[in-house]
Model the fold of this input.
Amino acid sequence: MCQNRLALAGQSAIASIMSSGCFRWGWWPMAALLTLELAAQAPTQPRGLEINAFQRALPAPGDTVPATARIQYPQALAWDTQTREIHAKDGEQSVDFRFALTNAWTNAVTITGTKTSCGCTVARLPETPWLIQPGKGGEISGTMNLQGKVGTIVKTVTVSTDVGSILLNVKVHIAPADPGRMRSADRQRNLAVAAADRQAVFRGECASCHVAPTVGKKGAELYATACGICHDAENKATMVPTLRELKHPTDRTFWMQWIRNGKPNSLMPAFDLKQGGILDEDQMASLADHLDSAAFKTGRAATPAKAAQP
Done:
């Protein structure tokens, strides 16, 4: 009977054993051992503190688990936001962003570096490594390049620390560019390129408008694709003349000289293949004949096949 009573747990079991005489018969040591065993098998609270958003568990006595193993997202740093949302202004080529943070833990935290999801986005730390004492903080700043982007763009910044890492988001809303503004900006850019190198219109991106349409063309068609694209353009540069309205006499020799050599220190390129141009002798001759014809002087130039702006 005493052994059956020993199966009971807690203080009530011990009291029953002692009142029944088991203590007198030497059962007290066994009861004490049983109580300790039952206590050891009872559920226990995990060692350390419950980790909330900005805390981590302190090591319990004898705890050999590394402190970093108990860190939980988002660690010990408090952020003003983890997603920075920006509405870009029309025409902006880049936007700046900032994330403010505070060390809300009782120990110092070291930020060891940052990594962005794309090369168009750069994040900057005040220093690397960045040691942040308890209660202190600062800002992580950065820039996102918007060139060629439209719509909503999301890039990430991974912040690495000695207690783990956290992911920040940069969300930028980019309105579609105004077509008129884009054309104006393109014209200004192209004018700057041509002013620096008048032969540049025959290379790179410019070639699609100034070279490809002229291939195999002669006479009036060649004029429309090689000359009219600039001289008859609706929004041509002020220094580009309207060829029908020149105030001085012209003849075939005049036109041939301008076609072949262009004009140094101006926007007018040399079209002669031998000078880095795009026209052979037959094409240049056919173009000079057309410019010197009565039809050209009194008529209206053919509409350019592709009205790109210089």
In short: The chain has three domains: 2-41, 77-174, 180-298. The chain has nine helices and nine strands. The domain at 180-298 is CATH 1.10.760 (Cytochrome Bc1 Complex; Chain D, domain 2). The two ends are 109 Å apart (CA to CA).
